[in-house]
Each structure stands twice: as structure tokens, then as C-alpha cells.
Specification:
Elements: H1 2-42, H2 47-50, E1 54-59, H3 65-81, E2 84-89, H4 94-107, E3 111-114, H5 123-131, E4 136-139, E5 152-155, H6 158-173, E6 177-183, H7 189-202, E7 208-215, H8 220-233, E8 242-245, H9 248-260, E9 270-275, H10 278-285, E10 291-295, H11 300-311, E11 319-321, E12 323-327, H12 332-339
Parallel strand pairs: 1-2, 1-3, 3-4, 4-5, 5-11, 6-7, 6-8, 8-9, 9-10
Antiparallel strand pairs: 10-12
Helix pairs in contact: 1-6, 4-5, 6-7, 8-9, 10-12
């Protein structure tokens, strides 16, 4: 088990190093972008005018703070570029998303951004978009469909996120922990992959056990309700070492339930989650949670770039990854200050 722990920590450190390299690359790209913009001004060109497109965006809903941030970020990027963004809130219903995509096709949009609520059931409507010559970009989640039916997916690697959460937990508990899991929406790629990634790591540690697992539907109220049932089932929480939540909002709901049960979250029960929304940093700074992994909500720029590249006949990779780092309490107060402005 010691060798397994060392292996997990090795990959954890390698991931952190890769994150540093990515950050350096981002800085270089930003410098290049500034230089390009300056050249455009010097030549009297209007890049905003050149970038104008009509894009449809079918969003899952507003079930979490992260989802709200993603929507705001994509809308802001569209406005910055002079893009006519047609926005549709599906309210967590796939049928609403399918209707929205068909409406975008009828309007003759230049491209479609789709944040799919679940993985399956998209083949027909994606084929309709493809037949109409409209590129579809999947944002933040994937689908179980032929890759030829969509242009690309702009998203984090959810499996890596789950694995990183498990690596942190294994290191924090020395590989001994009974865990309860708050899953995301049933059938979503985020829930499926974050579960898979977590299990792929804890499977190396015989003394780490997932004793209960249930969907809280990515909502704070769902996380609180499911955690309450876990606490009751596990002797008031005495048998629970940690809670792994597929997103921060469910983790924050779990924190409420743990407190109401008379226990100390982050101490009596460890809390690790994914998203890195502002509220989770406040919770960490207050000593209520232990770790979060960032899910980058700023997906508008790479999504619009992909559509523009496709319109120009350029090749676009099938997966544009946007993974973020793991955050711990030491930097939580400063992160909350920056992110809550």
C-alpha cells in the first residue's frame, strides 16, 4: 500500500508541475495576443468586426454557482467579440435542449454551443446540425455519440479531476478512510467520469472504502438532503471519514448537514469537492472544507475560436482540454477575495 501511495503522490506532483507549465504557456499566449491586437490597431483593422457571428448557446440551467459563472463568462466573451449570442436555458431538461438546438438550426446560426445535461440521446439532433453545415461545440461535458457529429469538446478531463481528489484524500488519510460520495446528475458525463476517476485511484488502497454513494443532482439542497440520509445511516456520521462531492455546491450542502448533526466539517469529516466556486473558498477559509479542484468556467474563448477555425477550413482537435489545479486552505482567503469581486 505504501508503494501505491507513493505512485499516486508522484502523479499528483506531476499534475501540479503540468499545471505550472500550462500557466507559463497561457502567459506566453496572452503576450502574443496583446502583440497581435496592437498590430491590428496599427493597421486600422477591426478584429471585433471580423469575429462577428451568430451563435446559439444551449445551457443546462443554473443548478450551481459554477454553472452561473460559466454562463456569465460565455456571454461576456460573446459581447467582447461582437457575437450575436442566442441563449437558451434548458432548466435541466434534455428535451428543452433538443428544442433549442433545432431552433438555432432554423435560425441559421453560424455555430452552436451545447452544454449537454446527459450523455445519451443526442445523435439525431446533432445529425440535423451537421446536415445543415452548423458546427456544434460541446462545452464542459461530453456526449455518447459519434465524434463526427460534433466539432469538438471544450472541457476539463473529469476523470483526472476525480483521480486528483482521490490522490489528495489518499495522502491526507494515509490510505485509510470510509468515504461517502455525493454524485452529480445521473447520466451526465461529469458524474460518470468523476466517479470513474476517483474509483480508479482509491482502488489501489484496500483501506479506502466508498461506503455510500448517491446523486445530489449537483445542487446544494440535493447535497444537504443526501448527506443527512448518509449521517443517519452511519451512526450520526461516526462511521464517515470523508465526503467526496462531485461539485462544490453539493459539498456546501453537506457542510450544512454535518454542522446540524453536531459534527465539525473538515475535522470530524473531511470534505473534498470539484469546481472552485467562490463560496467554497470562503468555506475553506472558515475551516469548513479541505480541498477543491478547479473546473475552469471560462470556456467561451476556446469555443468561439474553434467555430471560427472550422469556418475558415482549419482542422480542430476533438477535445480542447481546460483542466485546473487543486486548491487547499492555505490560499483560500486570497482566492475568495479575488473571485468574489
Amino acid at each position: 500500500m505504501v508503494e501505491s501511495l507513493q505512485l499516486i503522490l508522484y502523479y499528483y506532483m506531476a499534475f501540479k508541475q503540468e499545471t505550472t507549465l500550462r500557466e507559463e504557456l497561457v502567459v506566453s499566449l496572452k503576450k502574443l495576443a496583446v502583440s497581435t491586437a496592437a498590430l491590428g490597431v496599427a493597421l486600422g483593422l477591426s478584429f471585433a468586426a471580423q469575429a462577428e457571428m451568430m451563435i446559439g448557446f444551449s445551457q443546462i440551467g443554473s443548478e450551481s454557482g459554477w454553472r452561473t459563472s460559466e454562463t456569465a463568462s460565455i456571454k461576456a466573451e460573446a459581447e467582447k467579440r461582437g457575437i450575436d449570442l442566442k441563449f437558451s436555458d434548458a432548466q435541466q431538461k434534455q428535451e428543452n435542449q433538443i428544442k433549442a438546438v433545432r431552433s438555432f438550426i432554423a435560425q441559421g446560426v453560424d455555430g452552436i454551443l451545447l452544454a449537454p445535461v446527459v450523455e445519451t440521446g443526442w445523435d439525431q439532433v446533432l445529425k440535423e446540425a451537421k446536415d445543415a453545415g452548423i458546427p456544434v461545440v460541446l462545452v464542459d461535458r461530453g456526449v455518447a455519440a459519434d465524434e463526427d457529429l460534433y466539432l469538438t469538446k471544450v472541457a476539463s478531463d473529469f476523470v483526472v479531476e476525480g483521480a486528483l481528489a482521490a490522490a489528495w484524500l489518499a495522502a491526507e488519510t494515509n490510505g485509510v478512510c470510509d468515504v461517502v460520495e455525493l454524485q452529480g446528475t445521473v447520466g451526465s458525463s461529469a458524474a460518470n467520469d468523476r466517479k470513474e476517476g476517483f474509483e480508479s485511484v482509491v482502488g489501489n488502497f484496500p483501506a479506502i472504502n466508498i461506503i455510500r454513494s448517491q446523486s445530489g443532482d449537483f445542487t446544494r439542497s440535493g447535497g444537504k438532503e443526501v448527506m443527512e440520509s448518509f449521517l443517519k445511516a452511519e451512526d450520526g456520521g461516526k462511521n464517515i471519514c470523508a465526503v467526496y462531492a462531485h461539485n462544490d455546491d453539493m459539498a456546501l450542502g453537506a457542510v450544512q448537514a454535518i454542522k446540524e448533526a453536531g459534527l465539525d466539517p473538515a475535522d470530524d469529516i473531511l470534505v473534498v469537492s470539484i469546481d472552485a466556486v467562490p463560496d467554497i473558498f470562503k468555506a475553506m477559509a472558515d475551516g469548513d472544507t479541505n480541498a477543491t479542484i478547479e473546473l475552469n468556467p471560462h470556456l467561451g474563448a476556446p469555443s468561439f475560436d474553434a467555430i471560427k477555425a472550422a469556418m475558415a477550413g482549419e482542422e480542430v482537435p476533438k477535445w480542447i482540454k481546460a483542466n485546473g489545479p487543486l486548491y487547499l486552505p492555505a490560499t483560500a482567503a486570497e482566492e475568495y477575495k479575488m473571485r468574489s469581486k
